[in-house]
Amino acid sequence: MTQTLVRGRLLSFLRRPQAIDDTESYRYEEDGGLLVENGTIVAAGPYGAVRAEAAADADEIDHRPHLILPGLIDTHLHFPQMQVIGSYAANLLEWLNTYTFPEECRFVESEHAARIARHFYDEMIRHGTTTAVAYCSVHKASADAYFAEALKRGMRMVGGKVMMDRNAPQGLLDTPQMGYDETRAVIAEWHGKGRNHVAITPRFAITSTPAQMEMTAALAREFPDLHIQTHLSENHEEIRFTGELYPDAIDYTDIYAKYGLLGPKSLFGHCIHLSEREADAMSEAGAVAVHCPTSNLFLGSGLFPLKALSRREKPVRIGVATDIGGGTSYSMLKTMDEAYKIQQLLGERLNPFESFYHMTLGNAEALSLSDHIGTLEAGTDADFVVLDAAATPAMALKMEVTRSLTDELFLLQTMGDDRAVRETYVAGKAMKAVL
Ligand SMILES: [Zn+2]
C-alpha cells in the first residue's frame, strides 16, 4: 500500500485548553510530518522522525509554511436548506414557515436531493469540514441522497431523516408509524455503510405529536448507540408554544427527557435560554448543547452562554456548528469568529486555542467520535485540513506583523473563510484539488 507523507506545521489538541497559556493542551510541531496509509494516520511528529519511519517510495507533499489541523467538524446543519440561507425573516417561526418549510418540500424529488447533496459536499470540502451532522428533510429520498454522496466521497458523516407530523405543510409531514418505519429503513440501508452514521432525528417538539415522540423513544431504546439530534430552547416564542403543546412537562428539556431522548449521544441545537434546572439535567445526562452563533445572531435568537455553561459545577458538554440555513456561513472559522463576539457581548473571553479546540477535538468529543476524528493521533482517520493565514491580501498584510501562533490562529478565525483552506484531506485524499 502506498504511503503519503505530508509535511507542514502540525497543530492538534489533547484536551480543552484551560487558559490562553495552557500549552499542555495541544501539540504543535513547527516542522511536522504526517504519515498516511490506507486512509489512516500511521505516524505524526517531527518531520525527520516521521520521514525515517516512512517507506522509501512514500509520496511526499510539502504544505509548508501552512498549518495542518484535524479536519473541521460541524455538529448541526440542515442539508436541505442550502437555498434557504440568507432569507429575510423576523424570527425563527416566521423563517421556518415562509422559507424553510416550502424549500424542504422539494426534497421529495430524488433528483433534486441528489443535486443539492453534490453541492453540499462540495461546500463542506471547500470549507475544510470533513465531518458534519445534518438534518435531512422528512423524505427518505433526502437521507438516501445525503448518505449516498457521503459514501461516494468516503466521508465520516452523521445524518438523519427528519421526523415531523404536525405544525408544518402537508408535504413535510410523516406519521408516527411512517417516521419510525422510514428511520429504521435508513438505519438498515446506511448506518455503518462506509463511514456513515445515522442519527434519530425528530425535528423538535413543536413538529412532533406525543404519539410520534413515543416512536422516537422506541427507536432510541432499540438503537442505543445512535446519535439523537433535535432542537431545544432557541427562541422565546418557540419555548412558549412548546410549553403549551406539552403542558405536563416541567420545562422544554423535560419533554425530551420524558421520551428517553436525553443522553450522552444526544445533540441539542441551540440551548440558548436553558434554566438552571435544565442545564443540570443536561449535564447529568451527558447531553450536548450545540452552539450555532451565526444562526443565533441572524435570527435574533439570543446569546448562548458558552463560557458560563462550561464552567458550571455541573458543566454542560458543548458542540459548535453552522446551522445552515439559519446560519449564514459554511465556515467553521467564521462560526467561531461570531462565537467570540457573542462571548464578548456577555463579558467573557474565548481564546483562539479554545476556538480551534472546539472546531476539532471538542466537536469530536461532543460526538463521542474522538477515537476516529478531531486529532492527528496515529491510528485515527486521515481527515485533516491545510490552513493559510495569509490567504487574502488583507490577511497577508496583517500576517507581516503577526508573531505568535496565538495571533495567527486569531487572525485565521477573525478574517478567514474558505479562501484560507488550501486543502482538505478525507481519508488521506486531497479533495479540494479535484472539486
Ligand atoms: Zn437547526
From TrEMBL:
Pfam families, sorted: Amidohydro_1
Cofactor note: Binds 1 zinc ion per subunit.
Keyword Hydrolase (UniProt): yes
Enzyme kind, highest EC tier: hydrolase
Functional pathway: Purine metabolism; guanine degradation; xanthine from guanine: step 1/1
Catalytic function, reaction form: guanine + H2O + H(+) = xanthine + NH4(+)
GO cellular component, one term: cytosol
Domain of life of the source: Bacteria
Keywords: Hydrolase, Metal-binding, Zinc
Molecular function in Gene Ontology: guanine deaminase activity; zinc ion binding
InterPro entries the UniProt entry points to: Amidohydro-rel, Guanine_deaminase, Metal-dep_hydrolase_composite, Metal_Hydrolase, Metallo-dep_hydrolases
Any GO BP annotation: guanine catabolic process
Enzyme Commission (EC) number: 3.5.4.3
CDD domains per record: GDEase (cd01303)
Cofactor section: Zn(2+)
Residues covered by the Amidohydrolase-related domain: 68-430
SUPFAM superfamilies: Composite domain of metallo-dependent hydrolases (SSF51338), Metallo-dependent hydrolases (SSF51556)
NCBIfam families registered for this protein in UniProt: guan_deamin, PRK09228.1
Biological role: Catalyzes the hydrolytic deamination of guanine, producing xanthine and ammonia.
Family under the similarity heading: Belongs to the metallo-dependent hydrolases superfamily. ATZ/TRZ family.
Protein name: Guanine deaminase
Lineage, opening ranks: Bacteria, Pseudomonadati, Pseudomonadota, Alphaproteobacteria, Hyphomicrobiales
Gene: guaD
